[in-house]
Automatic annotation (TrEMBL):
The chain crosses the membrane at residues 12-30. The lineage of its organism: Eukaryota, Viridiplantae, Streptophyta, Embryophyta, Tracheophyta. Belongs to the glycosyltransferase 47 family. PANTHER family: EXOSTOSIN, EXOSTOSIN HEPARAN SULFATE GLYCOSYLTRANSFERASE -RELATED. GO terms for molecular function: glycosyltransferase activity. Keywords: Glycosyltransferase, Golgi apparatus, Membrane, Signal-anchor, Transferase, Transmembrane, Transmembrane helix. This is Exostosin GT47 domain-containing protein. GO terms for cellular component: Golgi membrane. It comes from Tagetes erecta (African marigold). It is found in: Golgi apparatus membrane.
């Protein structure tokens, strides 16, 4: 029945389609009761509206409804920043729509960076950046029944950060409990039980997955709440074991306003003279017995073609954008080991600099940013496993074996990824290029649309296994090798 209705729409026999859907609805109403029928009625009319408008309405099928949340759930957190963030002076980073302070046009900046679009961006601000972009999205609607997806502009990371230390679990959980309470009372929630809702957070998923109510445990427990299980989360690091977590790129320092600024930057990165074969910018993790960082640091120090930016003795060195970018621009490969969690912002800085990233754990990139990068990771990166480093494999030798022609191809692929991984200036959207925001939004709409269709068709995802979600992400991308080979990196939790 549904298939037939769809074909009618395809051939633009809208009246027939409507009648058909109406009869179908009546049948459903009789069979399944009022509740399901309501869900389906909404979705069906959405389908009919969006596809019949398809020809004339370029927004058909991609409308987004943004909740008008009370300001205590978002903007107040920024205004109250001074009081909130005890551990990091993050307040200044929220300026310029989340990009942070503009980098001054000093000589230093001009030689390393380009003259437009550079900011001292703090990587946790992606939720503010996303919020400012979506407010200017060209297909917003105030009619939630038209919307393909519903955005909840709650500042997830800020809510976490303001109570990061020295607060008991009830204080840490209060914000998200209040949010859930607010959401569940909305009619928009009831249509799909929140399954068309999504949130963005500038922090790794682990900050929202506290397992016990012991005050010594980390973070809040939002993601374990029944409401959160129905929503989708776009975070800088997703859990490999969760079906509704999705990773989006960490922001870099570059937020161009035009296509030209991107092309110009790409050209410069192609022409860079790269005097180091490989480099590493980071600090050791002496308290983590599994960390390979000190080995990487040793290898950098002991190689004539390796270069180290040691953040251990003076962390501020590594927070100076021009320092980091200068190093990455003069290196062929950039080492990107696991940090405090799987992922690092540094991987994105390295790609931005045209430096081919070297990963040691598939969870650092390959299983994360599947919406944004190709499934065939050998095209744009090198993988050397943690274990190989522990067995004292020589990085210099491994990387030295890659022939210059391959390196050139890889670098070209890396440089071509740049637009997809940066967040453009929201005040002047790029003309033809899609940036990280565009790609993320499209992907989440695709996901919700499929879910809605599954509900209409009566398909369920009961046979999907949460613990295998990293595999599903790879399969969707055609990365079969990863699915076969990386089990040992993701022990069942
Ligand atoms: C228009 O319709 C086609 C097929 O019916 C669909 O694939 C496409 O996504 C629609 N476009 C929009 C903007 O929804
Ligand atoms: C939604 O409603 C608000 C308040 O009435 C209005 O300012 C805004 O322009 C509307 N947005 C759209 C996309 O219609
Ligand atoms: C679909 O379009 C019709 C006519 O334009 C309108 O009356 C109806 O409310 C729309 N349905 C939804 C769910 O927006
Ligand atoms: C948690 O801390 C708040 C204030 O910091 C206090 O009012 C509250 O009583 C504490 N709750 C528990 C359960 O200790
Ligand atoms: C809470 O955690 C601490 C440290 O991990 C532990 O010593 C303590 O026994 C725990 N308390 C409870 C009630 O489980
Ligand atoms: C989540 O969705 C399921 C249906 O899939 C529903 O039974 C449940 O009540 C929803 N949870 C909340 C908190 O709305
Ligand atoms: C992946 O890319 C490399 C380099 O372009 C190529 O040699 C290889 O055949 C590709 N593998 C797959 C499975 O497509
Ligand atoms: C690792 O290899 C280097 C040279 O290849 C050697 O000097 C060093 O002793 C080795 N270390 C270990 C722990 O085997």
């Amino acid at each position: 029945m549904e298939k037939r209705a769809y074909r009618f729409q395809q051939s633009h026999i809208c009246i027939l389609g409507l009648t058909c859907a109406f009869i179908w609805l009546c049948l459903l109403y009789l069979n399944n009761g009022v509740f399901e029928a309501k869900i389906i009625q909404n979705s069906i009319s959405l389908q009919i509206n969006s596809s019949s408008n398809n020809k004339t309405d370029p927004c058909g099928g991609r409308y987004v409804y943004v909740y008008d949340l009370p300001s205590r759930f978002n903007e107040d957190m920024i205004t109250e920043c001074e009081r909130n963030i005890k551990w990091l002076d993050m307040c200044k980073f929220t300026m310029n729509g989340g990009f942070g302070p503009k980098l001054k046009n000093s000589e230093d900046v001009l030689t390393v960076l380009s003259d437009h679009g550079w900011y001292a961006t703090n990587h946790f601000n992606v939720e503010v950046i996303f919020y400012n972009r979506i407010k200017r999205y060209e297909c917003l609607t105030n009619d939630s029944s038209m919307a393909a997806a519903v955005f909840v502009p709650f500042f997830l990371g800020f809510d976490f950060a303001r109570y990061i230390e020295g607060f008991n679990v009830s204080v840490r959980d209060a914000g998200t409990i209040e949010l859930v309470d607010w959401l569940q009372k909305r009619d928009e929630w009831k249509v799909m039980n929140g399954k068309d809702h999504f949130l963005v957070g500038g922090r790794p998923t682990w900050d929202f997955r506290r397992k016990t109510d012991n005050d010594t445990d980390w973070g809040n427990k939002f993601f374990f709440s029944p409401a959160a299980k129905n929503m989708s989360f776009l975070l800088v690091e997703s859990s490999p074991y969760s079906l509704n977590d999705f990773a989006i790129p960490y922001p870099t320092y570059f937020h161009p306003a035009t296509d030209f600024e991107v092309f110009d930057w790409q050209d410069r990165m192609r022409k860079m003279e790269r005097k180091w074969l490989f480099c590493f910018a980071g600090a050791p993790r002496p308290r983590d017995p599994y960390s390979i960082r000190s080995r990487l640091i040793d290898q950098c120090k002991n190689s004539r073609v390796g270069k180290l930016l040691d953040c251990g003795d003076d962390e501020s060195k590594c927070h100076l954008p021009s320092n980091v970018m200068r190093l990455f621009q003069s290196s062929v490969f950039c080492l990107q080991p696991v940090g405090d969690s799987y992922t690092r912002r540094s991987a994105f800085d390295s790609i931005l600099a045209g430096c081919i990233p070297v990963f040691f754990h598939p969870g650092s990139f390959y299983t994360q940013y599947t919406w944004h990068v190709p499934g065939n990771y050998t095209k744009y990166s090198v993988f050397i496993s943690n274990d190989d480093i522990r067995k004292n494999v020589s990085i210099e030798q491994r990387l030295g074996e890659i022939d210059p022609k391959t390196i050139k191809m890889m670098r070209e692929e890396v440089i071509s990824l740049i637009p997809r991984l940066i967040y453009a200036d929201p005040y002047s959207k790029l003309e033809t290029l899609e940036d990280a925001f565009d790609i993320s939004l499209k992907a989440v709409i695709r996901k919700v649309t499929k879910l809605r269709q599954d509900m209409i068709d009566g398909r369920t995802d009961d046979n999907l296994v949460e613990e295998d979600s990293w595999k599903y992400a790879l399969l969707e991308q055609g990365n079969y090798a990863g699915v076969r080979e990386w089990d040992s990196f993701f022990p069942k939790p």
